[in-house]
UniProtKB/TrEMBL annotation, chain A:
Keyword Transmembrane helix among record annotations: yes
Record Gene3D superfamilies: MetI-like
Organism name: Actinokineospora xionganensis
Alphabetical UniProt keywords: Cell membrane, Membrane, Transmembrane, Transmembrane helix, Transport
InterPro entries: MetI-like (IPR000515), MetI-like_sf (IPR035906)
Main location: membrane
Topological type in the membrane: Multi-pass membrane protein
Subcellular localization(s) per the UniProt record: Cell membrane
Transmembrane segments: 12-30, 72-96, 103-126, 132-153, 174-203, 234-255
Domain ABC transmembrane type-1: 68-255
Family per record: Belongs to the binding-protein-dependent transport system permease family.
Protein name: Carbohydrate ABC transporter permease
Amino acid sequence: MTTKVSRQVSGHVVLGTLGVLCVFPIYWLYATSLRAPGDIGSLSPLPWPLSLDNYADAWRTIDLTGMLVNSAVVAVCTAAGQLLVGLFAAYAFTVWRFPGQRLLYLLFVGSWLVPFQVTMLPNYVLLSRLGLLNTIAGVIVPTLCSALGVLLLRQHLAGFPRELLEAAAMDGRSSWATLWTVVVPALRPVLAALGILLVINAWNEYFWPALVLRDNAMVQLGIRSFMGTEGNDWGPLMATAGLACLPVFALYLVLQRHIVNAFVRSGLK
Amino acid sequence: MFRAGSSGTVQIRPVSAIQVEKLTQRFGAVAAVDDVWLDIADGEFMVLLGPSGCGKSTLLRMIAGLLPPTEGRVLIDGVDVTHAPPQGRDLAMVFQSYALYPHLSVARNIGFPLRARDMPKRAIEAKVADVAAALDLAALLDRRPRELSGGQRQRVALGRALVRDPGAFLMDEPLSNLDAKLRAGTRAELSALHDRLGATFVYVTHDQIEAMTMATRIALLNNGRLEQVGTPEQVYDEPASTFVAEFLGTPPMNLLDVTLRSGVATAPGVTVRLDLPDRDLILGVRPEHLQLTTGDEAMLRGHVTRVENLGSEEVAICAVGAATVRVRARRPIGPRAGDTVALRADRFHLHLFHPETGRRLVPLTHQEISCVS
């Protein structure tokens, strides 16, 4: 009995410690952003007196509103595109039998395993030739096809009752109509959960936008405006980083259950 | 429960005849359906019967257009529809799992095929109301499938098929998910529905009771091949093979390997006079056709190993030589475990089968069979 209790206690201590380790950097980020400009280097765990000067400074220095809007556009369009491409590909892979199907699917999955650094340069060159460098479209278009989205949706569709698709065919629906009138409505919770994951993923992207956009048009890139050769302006930098994190945290707080569901359903837990 | 047609609300337009010619479906080296020829007449209730994996559902799916055949043709009203998609065949199907759209209400499930045809909203509502009234679903129209019982789901699936006025109904084991009591009731209702609509039904089942009670004709399949097609009486009374003889009937037909020499078929415990040329045979007799006898007319002699009580009847399981023979009769059957029994059957209740192919041999006349004392 005592062993069981002590095991439970030690388990909770480990979990608590890990939790604190995860949360502490985020706390420190907001704590620093809320310190008065003169206290930025302070190691005091509590930021006191509280000050919003860093936020005001960040707002004055960079076009935060425009950057947040651009980031939102990129995140939503990327996620929507990936969801749509994933849905079409997964539907085709699940519903139809065609020559080379297995090979094509393996290629899709294989593309997930190719490091970003390998595809980065060819994509960059292509964007340059298409004249899409330094545009929001240039950030979105190359990321529209997500192997992860295809993989996860195919997994869900593989478990979709085949008789429902056949019933729709018997009831007079074409494959295209079946997708929109039967498959999508029935998969709505899955699509919503996956959509949220893809939005968060796209929102957190830094490297690719940094490569395509020369001006800091997205909030994730706006952060670097406060980094210079003569040193970093930590206060506004932390304030901007804190603001960049807020939409994701808000999304998580509101849709916590769906996000956990997305992981559980996708088998990625 | 089903009142379709009785109030004149649900009308079925002229029904379809279905012909299947040389239909074959191979999955790699395995022939799931092998060279099947079948004529299903207008208004017929054809039951495709057979054990699991015999190819009956595959055959139905090929008729429906859900599975392209490897070989052969499907004709509906004489028109070759082998390569037509399911939408182009004017057939409705009721699936084993009912395949109700989980995100739609009962009303929208029933109206789904009509919306696919771009029918006006008012007309759809009227038609759905008609069908729902005929199937006692009027009070459930706003419910989702998950809020319905098995029997209600089955009626919704049927309603979705009925609402289209199709040329023929295809049903893939629609009663298999219902409990025994509901199944018995629904069986009678489906038969009544068929009688009222006069529509063509093609019904897949592995349940011989469903087949015997509902079918106008039964097509019995085994390993992808048609064993026999006939009325329920024909397949029961004159089984074309040992497979059919064993598949139909509870308990199944007793089959005994016998050797016919000089007009007497013998095996350990078996002695039957048959006026036929010498040969090896399989002798078949149904359990309910065997009678206990004390006289010289005994065909089988053995002892009872066990008696099973079925309620109104009993089944005596007897050891006859190395074979097991079952006798079914009203309770009490008489002998108990350990008793010696002598059994006889009327001559016209004996069946003869080829020992290698298992096919039925020529019908016997009364004169050709007799008993020896």
